[in-house]
Amino acid sequence: xxxxxxxxxxxxxxxxxxxxxxxxxxxxxxxxxxxxxxxxxxxxxxxxxxxxxxxxxxxxxxxxxxxxxxxxxxxxxxxxxxxxxxxxxxxxxxxxxxxxxxxxxxxxxxxxxxxxxxxxxxxxxxxxxxxxxxxxxxxx
Length: 140
What we know:
By secondary structure, the chain is an alpha+beta fold. Helices cover 34% and strands 24% of the residues. The protein is built from 4 helices and 7 strands; from the N terminus they run αβαβαββαβββ. Strands 1-4-3-5-6-7-2 form a 7-stranded antiparallel beta sheet, sandwiched between helices. The radius of gyration is 14 Å and the shape is globular. It starts with 7 loop residues before the first helix and ends in a 5-residue tail after the last strand. The model has no long low-confidence stretch (mean pLDDT 89).
């Protein structure tokens, strides 16, 4: 039995707002998390190339449509992201729109497939924390 789960409301969002999407398997999830962590956690810890809240959302929206990977289950305590409802990973082509409320409620991480940027969402958005866009300065 694998560690991944499906998240029906995320899948409904992708049905509506992506050209196509697929869920990935456990091995792919671990590889994506490892690559994501290697690229973005050092930038987060350094506090460089970060945008917060509305500025982060506007920057992400300016990059759409895009090929993205959507993660759940990866905790980033410094951003008040506790991993959402468990491990899940989706790859989407042509994502046209962000469901901000859903992404925050599910504490998703949305990253470009080429890892040039990612946005970390949090259930605390609007209260104690904000969405955070992290740019990969080596690729942007």
